[in-house]
Amino acid sequence: MSKKSEPSAEPKKKVLYTLSLTPEQANALKVWCDRQLWVPHEVEYAQFGYKGDGVNVVMYTSGKLVVQGKKTEEFVTYVLEGEITKDPRLGYDVFHHPEWFEAHGGLDESGKGDLFGPVVSACVLVDAGVAQTWLDMGIRDSKSISSDAEIFRLETLIRRTQGVVVQTTFANMRRYNELYLKFGSNLNKLLAWMHSKSLGEALKLKRVPWAMLDQFTKQPLVQN
Fold this sequence. Notes:
With 224 residues, the protein is an alpha+beta fold. It has helices at 23-35, 72-85, 93-96, 130-137, 148-160, 173-182, 187-203, and strands at residues 16-20, 39-40, 46-51, 56-60, 64-68, 104-110, 119-126, 164-171, 211-213. The chain has two domains: 16-91, TATA-Binding Protein; 98-213, Nucleotidyltransferase, domain 5 (2-Layer Sandwich), CATH 3.30.420.10. 35% of the residues lie in helices and 22% in strands. Strands 1-5-4-3-2 form a five-stranded antiparallel β-sheet, with helices on one face. The chain has a four-stranded mixed β-sheet with strand order 8-7-6-9, sandwiched between helices.
């Protein structure tokens, strides 16, 4: 019986990269693509889009550039950073965002209850260095993933990573409606309660110096 090949220890190459560009930088990129005879293509809400050798680039009207393809890293390193922004960032997250690599926590929620399905609040606490491990594994923003199978695969990797605690609070539609009434039909207070519960349970297992939660209200509702 043949042995299963061991997974590669090499970090996965990026095939998707986003960056905000100034109008001047966006124009410089457009000129570069034209000079390289890249094929222009229309994309909704985009200033321009081009298809090149192993790379697609789309510059949106919001100012966000999306680079996608098997040669994303080469394009970002040698063209985008080397000629357009002149600001090396790919692979330098530890210098630009050192807080990512500290021990810390993160909280977020998904779902909106009675009309759209259950609400889930999740809290993840990590040791220092876990972020680099996850980057090397290819773990990334779920908004850039369209495959349910890939989401489940990455969830398994996250939960199995040493030095990680994951705690969730779940409310099905019936429970959501009960909680919604309990908190005076105030969605912000309901979400704050769920986040506090997830955070409190996680902190019983691991302590970290700080955690981040997206601001969903101006009131200081989540404290621990």
